[in-house]
Design a protein that fits this description.
It contains three helices and nine strands; from the N terminus they run αββαββββαβββ. By secondary structure, the chain is of the alpha+beta class. The chain has a single domain, classed as Regulatory factor, effector binding domain (Multidrug-efflux Transporter 1 Regulator Bmrr, Chain A, Alpha-Beta Barrel), CATH 3.20.80.10. Strands 1, 2, 3, 4, 5, 6, 7, 8 and 9 form a nine-stranded antiparallel sheet that branches. Strand 3 and strand 4 form a beta hairpin.
C-alpha cells in the first residue's frame, strides 16, 4: 500500500514538471556559433558535441550572455527503407552560444542564424535522463490539444543557463518549440 501511494505521489510530481501551460513567446533573430553534426538515435553524438564545445567554447568572441548556451535542432527527415530496416529520424544539431556579432570562427566551429519566430517555451525540470518524457508531453499531449501546429521549417531550441545542473533533480532549462497558430 505504501509503495502504491509513493508511486502515485512520484507520478504526480513528475507530471507537474510538464503540466504547466507553456509561455507563448516571440524570439528575435539569433546567431549561434558552435559545433554541429548530423544526428539520429543510432548516431546520437549530442553529448560528445557538448563535451567538445565546452572544452573549446571559450574561443567564441562576442558571446551575447556569458554562461548561456543553446542546442538547436532542425532539418528533420525520416531515413531507412525496406521492411528489414526500421526508419528513423535524422536531424542537424548545433551546440553553441548566441553571439552579438560574427567574428572569425575557431577551427571546427560553424554558425547558424535563426530568424524571428513564435515559440512555445517549456521548462524541463530534472535530469537529462527524463528529457524524453518532457518531449513526449510536448508533442503527444500538449501540441495536439493546443491551438498551434509545430512549424516544421524552423529550429527547436534548448536554452541552458545558470538553472541547468547536469544530472541533478533540481536542474532546469528552457525548450522552445516553433509554432504557428492553427487555422480552421
Amino acid at each position: 500500500m505504501v509503495a502504491r501511494i509513493m508511486t502515485i505521489i512520484l507520478t504526480a510530481a513528475i507530471c507537474v514538471c510538464w503540466a504547466d501551460e507553456p509561455a507563448i513567446v516571440e524570439l528575435g533573430d539569433m546567431t549561434v556559433v558552435g559545433m554541429q553534426s548530423l544526428v539520429s538515435m543510432k548516431h546520437n553524438v549530442i553529448k560528445e558535441l557538448w563535451t567538445r564545445f565546452m572544452e573549446s567554447g571559450y574561443e567564441i568572441e562576442y558571446m551575447k550572455d556569458e554562461g548561456v548556451y543553446v542546442g538547436i535542432s532542425w532539418g528533420y527527415k525520416e531515413v531507412g527503407k525496406g521492411k528489414e530496416e526500421k526508419k528513423e529520424t535524422q536531424f542537424f544539431h548545433l551546440v553553441g552560444a548566441p553571439v552579438t556579432e560574427m567574428s572569425e570562427l575557431p577551427e571546427g566551429f560553424t554558425h547558424k542564424t535563426i530568424s524571428a519566430q513564435m515559440y512555445a517555451r517549456f521548462v524541463h525540470k530534472g535530469p537529462l535522463s527524463k528529457l524524453g518524457e518532457t518531449y513526449d508531453y510536448i508533442f503527444v499531449t500538449w501540441l495536439p490539444e493546443s491551438g498551434y501546429l509545430y512549424d516544421t521549417g524552423k529550429c527547436d531550441i534548448e536554452l541552458y543557463d545558470e538553472r541547468f545542473k547536469s544530472g541533478e533533480e533540481d536542474s532546469e532549462f528552457d525548450i522552445y518549440v516553433p509554432i504557428i497558430e492553427k487555422t480552421e
